[in-house]
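DM from R.C. (forwarded with permission)

"hey, sorry to bug you on a friday — could you get me a structure for this? deadline for the figure draft is monday and I only need the backbone to look sensible"
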Amino acid sequence: MSKRNGGGAIKIAVVANSAVRRARLESIVRHHPEFHLAGSFGAVASLASSARTELDVIVIDSDPIHDLLRQSSSRAAIVLLTEVRDARSIARLLRSGVRAILSRESGSDDLLSAIYAACGGLVLLSTPIAESLAAVYGDQSLEIEDELSEEITSRETEVLRMLAEGLVNKDIAARLGISEHTAKFHISSILDKLGASTRTEAVTLGIRRGLIPI
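My reply, with the result:
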């Protein structure tokens, strides 16, 4: 199996408010020959920044998701065990860096698959969670997408097309006669409105919605 940082055991930290559930996660990790339990915590906030940067995967058993949305700066992939089911929350979690989302009652085999998927840069969702996303987004009509596109201003459309040209913030600012800070603000707004996590994804969505001519 591949390892994000190359070679050696996969370094994993587990987080769970419940001592019983935390012990279960610890046992699964400890008994797998390719895993190394690098830490065990009762709360997300207990993870020190320095420790997170050395981890490959963080397994979190928790329903409150607000703290998770602030973990995007971590290099570690996040595997989340949760009962959260609404599509909007799931989408926010995926954009914030969560790479696998399972039911809290998932078996050890499912958890192992999720860890390997997250560590390999893939996204893994349990069937109920995937179905909840499909129910909301899978049947979106072109009319709905057009309505979403109307939220993008004409200036933001200009910036989005410059992103498609491969321009960086400094070049965009120079071409539009604005500050780099303002250019960065426009780009952040574009990512938020399109629901994109990267510039490349924003460009892809822009092409799909007809904002960028091809």
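R.C.: lifesaver. Confidence is low (pLDDT under 50) at residues 141-150.
me: no worries. The beta strands are 10-16, 35-41, 57-61, 77-81, 98-102, 124-125.
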